[in-house]
Design brief:
By secondary structure, the chain is α/β, with parallel strands linked by helices. It has helices at 3-12, 62-72, 93-106, 108-123, 140-150, 193-205, 239-256, and strands at 18-25, 35-42, 48-54, 77-80, 128-138, 157-161, 180-185, 210-215.
Length: 258
């Protein structure tokens, strides 16, 4: 984490006894599939707004857990979702791409079902205010957060960090009930201008509230410090975009959770 981001967190952090725990959960309609999520927050501090984090293509990792702790320290209860399910731990780029394609490029209905399971799970915990829930996601997870809104889930807001914006069912934009914040790498080769334009047209056509911020010089995975620093590879960390996008998310939460 950058020094600037640490300073930002210090300026907004509220004292709390932040702890985390692994949680096994299942979809309502399928008790054969088990997901392994991670809950972070002040477990004894009363109901707080809830934030769901949807993971990037590697699955639920220390990256999401670290982000969850940062957000929990702002005064929220955070649940890291597991889209892939227990036993699906992709180790290679080929395995990761296969799982991403399975949900993002193939079965969006199943993608939404797995995301909805995480939404149901966070709502059952007493330290979560069920009327104030948001979803965020990184890369593949950014697409997931948008899919939760397109599925019509009762969310206060959605944030996509360098996420895919494609939508094979544009008519589902009508289901969105909340503001959307898209934090995008302006030079991201994996989310080309045509995809960006299509997303904006879909949202505009249905008059859905959204904010789109593109960071010049940033590519895919700009908030992930383990992405390296070589923009020519299409995915790389960008400290400035990381800090600015986190700050935008903080401001967004303050607005939607009022």
């Amino acid at each position: 984490m950058t020094n600037a981001l640490l300073l930002l967190l210090a300026s907004v952090t509220t004292p709390a006894d932040i702890t985390g725990r692994w949680v096994d959960y299942q979809p309502r309609d399928d008790h054969k599939t088990t997901f392994h999520g991670y809950l972070v927050g002040d477990m004894d501090g009363g109901a707080k707004p809830g934030v769901i984090i949807v993971h990037q293509w590697e699955g639920l990792t220390d990256y999401e857990i670290g982000r969850a702790r940062e957000i929990a320290e702002l005064g929220y209860t955070v649940f890291c979702a597991d889209v892939y399910g227990v036993g699906n731990n992709p180790k290679t780029a080929e395995e990761r791409q296969a799982l991403v394609s399975k949900y993002r490029d193939g079965d969006r209905a199943n993608f939404r079902r797995n995301l909805s399971a995480a939404y149901s799970e966070i709502r059952r915990w007493p330290m979560v205010d069920r009327t104030k829930i948001a979803a965020i996601g990184y890369c593949f997870g950014g697409t997931g957060a948008l899919e939760m809104a397109r599925a019509g889930l009762d969310l206060k807001g959605v944030v996509s960090f360098h996420g895919g914006l494609s939508n094979p069912n544009p008519q589902d934009v009508k289901n969105i009930k909340c503001p959307v914040l898209v934090l995008h790498g302006a030079d991201d080769p994996f989310v080309p201008p045509a995809e960006v334009d299509a997303f904006k047209k879909e949202m505009d056509a249905d008059s859905k509230p959204y904010t789109f911020i593109a960071y010049p010089g940033a590519v895919h995975a700009f908030s992930q410090s383990n992405a390296g620093n070589d923009n020519s590879k299409g995915a790389a960390y960008n400290a400035a975009a990381d800090m600015k996008s986190f700050s935008e998310m903080v401001k967004f939460f303050r607005e939607i959770f009022r």
